[in-house]
Design the sequence.
DNA sequence: TTTGTTAGTGAACTGCCTTTACTAAGTCGG
DNA sequence: CCGACTTAGTAAAGGCAGTTCACTAACAAA
């Protein structure tokens, strides 16, 4: 049964077309990583003693002391007094993030007509919120408007701002360049770079649905090992996190679920095709569908949309073995028969291993998801925390 | 338009349920990373001078010289004489991987009745191939059989073996534990650990479809930024790579596309439900579907299955913004009307941004995909090369 | 032959984490 | 009440990994 192989042309290395973007790692990068580890722990677990930090990160107490000293010098961390409670040994001094010492600016560009912004603390708590009508501005004008808006928010912050996070519709690459956002007339706009220059602050830009997923992951307690956030508004978008990382996709366009055909020979869609998910699941479409119906009929109509959604989600849930699907949008339309029918349909159409563990629930952060996610963009980019 | 927010309960940190598995990084890990960087370059680009390695990795020539010295001492790398051709300056000494100095053992457990194995060089070239009938063995007996089989392959290798890679059906976690593989009667079997102990060699185990994806990515020249490999045999499986990484999923069950419902009220499936993709796309199902038909009718039947596949793929392709879908299996059934109909259907049902760049082609490595991928498991696990 | 260019190495230095050894400050048990 | 134990935190020295700087080696071109 053994075959000696001679002369057979075996799989030959062929240069893989894509990028293999591995970069060198220096000791100082290790340092940055470990520093983030400490901040990450303090962020999620709250005040902790140096010794406990050492145990949690498996670094030594010496190293932790050193890192904490640096973080304290930067004003990011402070001592909070000894840990209460009686135990043996020297009492532990708690250290915690100075969450109120710095702030972040978050901006949500999802809405066509209003730019929504906020100043937030490092824990994602809102300090102030500000909206600005777009008045039809697009392209360069909109960038200028956005610049002024951000300047205003930075000025309004009561503490030093460590960065600006922006959730934008459209395709956004990893450098924060908006590859295309038709409604804004943005094509290849280096938004992050431009604003970073103009504001003199770190600016992070990502797709709005992706940003929402990040927000739910960090603040909504969602499972990062397999999470899809479906944003339902004027349109339908999705952001996906798998194995703890945002899914970007080949052309940074991952999450474009709104324009998948779900109804054969369905209604025409703004994109020029027919029967897209958006034609049945967007808020306007749903309002139209239930308009004038009594409760029972409306519920049936919503359940029908839910089943359609379930059919489209089933292959995705199955392929990615998702743990959770979160729906973000008006609860009166989404959080009832629609959501339940979607879950049921996905369960029916997938293996028990896949479907039984799945949750389909409403996003917990509601209208602030994108703002929260935008804040996480900054926390993650500047502090390595998420 | 500014709102001061007081007392509003803002998004509050909630411990994210999942794992946040970030581990500390030490300088020596940086070293290991940079070492892999060198091997990676030599693996993909072939013999290279130290100076060019320095430029490619952006490490200094000093560091590269040091790393190369270590790798040479380990016998992984060798000097290959000066680079031919006239140029100014001191002639460069080429160094290359000693690809024939070590070998790897690869095993493919996809088939229910035959264990397929091979000894391969570090570049994935086949040295010898060996098959062994399973004779109905399952559970512990199968593990024992597999142990003997691997021992035999290791003994048959003509060079020292750096590790064993195994592609297994079923759900396999990141530690190489087979969570469940019903046909093998394996439930929670720590396959990698057991074999590592018994063989005294590094053993890496992963799901077979995932392994196939890895093989295509490394040896097939597929785009790692968005790749789905569909393996069509007795059953249907899928392996996905996004943003350069394998997708594992919440319960390590990513890629379970075979049991997504694609035909309402369809034929009963072995899994107990109806209309699963496997009921129309598996090799037996396809053979049945075209049996006795003339060419034209057979083509029509295959195209119909292709359209069904396209409908199921469209949401996945769209959600992940995939660049390529590779189909692995019998070309006479798959590489014709079926494949073309699938591509066309996905294009019809997704946005141009998503569909126009998509390729749907046959896997280039054919029946050896899983073996090649198993080799990559070892290369990647032991040398950091993929 | 001289000049300039490129490849490779040796020495000194810096950054980062570790081990080891110490001090500080409490509880516990006789 | 006091020594034994336990835990928190720091100081000093050592090892490892990368860098810069300075050098030698080996060629082409002028």
Sequence:
């Amino acid at each position: 049964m053994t075959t000696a192989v001679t002369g057979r042309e075996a799989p030959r290395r062929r240069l893989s077309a894509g990028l293999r973007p591995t970069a060198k790692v220096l000791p100082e990068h290790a340092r940055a990583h470990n520093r983030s580890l400490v901040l990450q722990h303090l962020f999620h677990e709250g005040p902790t003693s140096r010794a406990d930090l050492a145990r949690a990160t498996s670094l030594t107490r010496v190293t932790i002391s050193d890192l904490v000293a640096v973080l304290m010098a930067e004003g990011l961390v402070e001592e909070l007094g000894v840990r209460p409670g009686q135990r043996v040994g020297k009492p532990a001094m708690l250290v915690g993030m100075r969450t109120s010492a710095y702030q972040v600016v978050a901006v949500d560009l999802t809405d066509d007509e209003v730019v929504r912004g906020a100043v937030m603390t490092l824990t994602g708590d809102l300090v102030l919120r500000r909206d600005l009508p777009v008045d039809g501005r697009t392209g360069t004008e909109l960038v200028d408007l956005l610049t002024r808006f951000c300047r205003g928010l930075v000025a309004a912050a009561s503490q030093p701002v460590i960065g600006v996070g922006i959730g934008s519709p459209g395709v956004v690459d990893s450098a924060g360049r908006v590859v295309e956002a038709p409604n804004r007339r943005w094509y290849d706009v280096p938004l992050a770079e431009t604003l970073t220059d103009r504001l003199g602050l770190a600016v992070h830009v990502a797709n709005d649905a992706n940003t929402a997923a990040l927000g739910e992951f960090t603040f909504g307690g969602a499972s990062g090992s397999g999470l899809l956030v479906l944003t339902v508004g004027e349109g339908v978008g999705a952001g996906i996190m798998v194995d703890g990382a945002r899914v970007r996709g080949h052309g940074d366009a991952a999450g474009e679920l709104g324009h998948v055909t779900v109804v054969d020979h369905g209604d025409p869609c703004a994109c020029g095709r027919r029967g897209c998910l958006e034609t049945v699941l967007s808020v306007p479409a749903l309002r139209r569908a239930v308009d004038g119906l009594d409760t029972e009929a409306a519920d049936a109509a919503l359940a029908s949309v839910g089943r359609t959604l379930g059919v489209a989600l089933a292959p995705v849930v199955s392929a990615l073995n998702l743990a959770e699907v979160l729906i973000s949008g008006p609860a009166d339309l989404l959080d009832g028969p629609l959501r339940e029918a979607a879950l049921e349909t996905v369960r029916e159409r997938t293996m028990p291993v896949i479907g039984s563990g799945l949750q389909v629930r409403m996003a917990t952060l509601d209208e602030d998801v994108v703002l929260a996610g935008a804040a996480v963009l900054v926390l993650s980019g500047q502090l390595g925390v998420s």
Observations:
- Residues 26-28, 30-31, 34, 59-60, 62-63, 66, 86-91 of chain B lie near DNA strand D (CB under 10 Å from a C1').
